[in-house]
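B., you asked whether I could sanity-check this one before it goes into the benchmark set. Here's the sequence:
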Amino acid sequence: MIELKNVSVSYPLPEGGRKSVFENVSMHIRRGEMAYLVGPTGSGKTTLLRLLYMDIKPDSGLIRVADYRSADIQPSEIPFLRRSLGIVFQDFQLLPDRSVFDNVAFVLYVTGKRGKAVQNRVLHVLSRVGLGHKRRRFPHELSGGEQQRVVIARAIVNDPWIVLADEPTGNLDPAVADDIQRLLSGLNRQGMTLLMATHDYRLVRKFPARTLAVMNGQIVEVDPTTLGT
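And here's what the prediction gave me:
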């Protein structure tokens, strides 16, 4: 489902030269798998996610996400790749002037869907994340955990192959973070491939799964029970 082969990525520095993020990295995530991506802030977790939804390209090597390959994907194909992904951000990025229903429906509207199909799909995913009763509320009327549930509903409304979550519990207290993690883990058990970037080792230990750590420009598999100890 996700594969990196000998991928290297770097950024230009203001004073000249380049800073390496990844050097000759290879990894894979199978269909239906759940994996954490851990590492300190600035280690490259978000860069990896951006590579996967092809917001940036590698300097060298190959990235494959489902049927799309970084080497030959055309700019016109990138929106179709992203429609097959569900992306969950830490900072919610909800539209403040739209209801919960409309925030989720917006994703369907931009793909050309209209009418009863939109209503049925949105109500279904809001029920799936436990927010069907708050579909008419606005983001400022929701708690942080409820806002993140809206973000997850928006991410899965197109029934994506893969969910990429970038620090989805970073702004939440531990009890609410646990609720969000249970929700994400439940989606994975229902068949969605999940890659979640996080620096919350407590959460990883409590809900263990395959764990990949970004270390010194490499991605290595680690035992989640040993994190933070």
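One thing to flag: The radius of gyration is 18 Å. Otherwise nothing jumped out at me.
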